[in-house]
Amino acid sequence: MKDRWKLNPFFRLFALFLLLVILFIAAGIGLFYFFFSIPEPEGLSLATWPNRFTDNFSIWMENDRGTLQIEEMGLERLDEYGLWLQVIDESGQEVFSHNKPEDFPASYTASELLAFSTSAYADGYTIFVSSFEKTGQTWNYLIGFPYAIGKSVLYYNGETVSRLSPVFRLLIFSVFFAGAALFLIYGFWLTRQMGKITRGIGNISLRTYQPIPEKGLFNSVYAALNKMDREIRHSDQLMEETERVRREWITNITHDLKTPLSPVKGYAELLADGPAVDNQTVQEYGSIILKNVDYAEKLMNDLKLTYQLESGAFPFHPQQVRLVRYLKELVIDIANDPIFSNRDIEFESENNLSELTAAIDPDLFRRAVGNLVINALIHNSSNTKVIVSVSEDKWKGIYITVRDNGVGIKEEEQAELFTRYYRGTNTKEKSEGSGLGLAIAKQIVILHGGDIVVKSKSGEGTAFSILLPAN
C-alpha cells in the first residue's frame, strides 16, 4: 500500500489538495485574529472585548441611598488591565474617577457623550461609554482602553439579509464543492496523462512504443517522446546495420588473410618436406611466398592504421607543400608501377596554380589520394581512363578530384563507400583490398580539416572530390 501511495499521482494530488485546504483555513483564522483581536492580560481577545467589558462593568456598581459605590473587585480589574474610569451623573458632572488622565474634563454635555460612540483612538486611549441605572437614578460612565480600536456601524435591511442568508450559505458551499470537484476531475485527468507518458517511456525501452498524437496540454512532451522513439529506432537500425557489416567484414578479412596464408603454407611445406629442388624452383617458391606475406602484412597494416586514425594515436605532421608538384609526382609514381604501367592515368591543373601550397602531412595525404587512384584502377577495366585534377576556390578552398570513366557505382552503395567494414559489389571478383581503403582516405582528409564526397552513375564513371578548406 505504501508503494502504491508513492507511485499513484492521484493520491499525492489529493494529499496536496487537503494540505492546501488546511493551510487556507489556518491562514484565514490567522488573518481574522490579526485584524480583529487585541492583546490583554489574560491573552488574546477579539476587538469587541472592550465594548463588552464596558457594558458588563455595571455589575460592580451599587446605588447606596443615592450615592454610587464601586466594588473593590471592579477597581482591581481596571488596574489589572491598565484602564481608567470616570462616572458622570445626570447633569453631566463627574462624581467618581479612577486612574483618569489629568487632561480629560470633569463634565460633559449630552452631545459629547454621544460622540464617544464613534470616537477614534486619541491621546493614547479609545473611550467606551455605558450607563448604570437603579432605583430611579442613572449614571453614565466612561472607560478608557489603551488600544487603537476602530469603531464602525453597519446598517442594512434585516429582512432582506435574513431571507438571503441561506442562499448565500448555499452559494458558498456550492462554489467550494464545485471547486473541489473540478480539482478532483483535473487530478484524474492529470493522472491519466502522466500514466500515458510513463507507459510511453516504458514502451520506448521495450521497443513497443506507438506514436502519440501531438496535441493537448502535453503536446511538447508527446513530441519529445515521439522524437526520442524515432531516434532510438534509427540508432537501433544503424547498430544492426553496423553489426551486419562488421560481421561481413570480419568474414571477408578472415578469408582475405587465409588467401595469402594458404599458398605460403603450401609452398613452405613443399620446400620443407619435398625432394630437393633446384635454385630456380626455390626462388620461384620464395617469390610467391614473399608476395603473399606482403599482401597479408598490407591487410594488417590497413587495419591498424584505421584504428590509429580513429583514436587519434597516429602521428600527424602537417607542413607546407607545393600541391601541384606533389600530386604530379604521386601520379607519376603510380603510373610507373609495373602493375599499372599500361593504364591511362593523367594529371590536370590550371597554369596559375603551379605555386599553390597547402598544409598537409605528405605521407598520410599520399595514402589518401593514392587509395582513390588505385581503387579507380583496380575496380575498372584496363581501358578505363583515370584523371587527377586540382583547382582552387578562394572562398571555399582547394579541390582535388579523382575521376574515371569506368563502370560507376550504384546509387544505393554510394552512402556506404566510406564505411570501415564495407566492400562494394563490384569488388567481389577481386580479392585484393581489405575494404578499408576509402575509410582510411576519409579519415585522413577529415584529419586535415577537409571533407571527401563521391558522385557516380552506373556505366558513366565515378568522381571523388577532396576539399581542403581555405587558409
From TrEMBL:
Pfam families linked to this entry: HATPase_c, HisKA
Task: Supply one GO CC term from the record.
Answer: plasma membrane
Reaction equation(s) it catalyzes: ATP + protein L-histidine = ADP + protein N-phospho-L-histidine
**Residue ranges constituting the Histidine kinase domain according to the UniProt record:** 252-471
GO molecular function terms noted in the UniProt entry: phosphoprotein phosphatase activity; phosphorelay sensor kinase activity
Kind of enzyme, top EC level? transferase
Question: Which Gene Ontology BP terms does the record give?
Answer: cellular response to phosphate starvation
- Any idea where this protein resides? Membrane
Tell me the keywords, alphabetical order: Kinase, Membrane, Phosphoprotein, Transferase, Transmembrane, Transmembrane helix, Two-component regulatory system
Enzyme Commission no? 2.7.13.3
Q: Which InterPro entries match?
A: BphY/WalK/GraS-like, HATPase_C_sf, HATPase_dom, His_kinase_dom, HisK_dim/P_dom, HisK_dim/P_sf, Sig_transdc_His_kin-like_C
Supply the PANTHER family for this chain: PHOSPHATE REGULON SENSOR PROTEIN PHOR (PTHR45453:SF1)
Q: What protein name does the entry list? A: histidine kinase
Q: Which organism is it from?
A: Candidatus Blautia faecavium
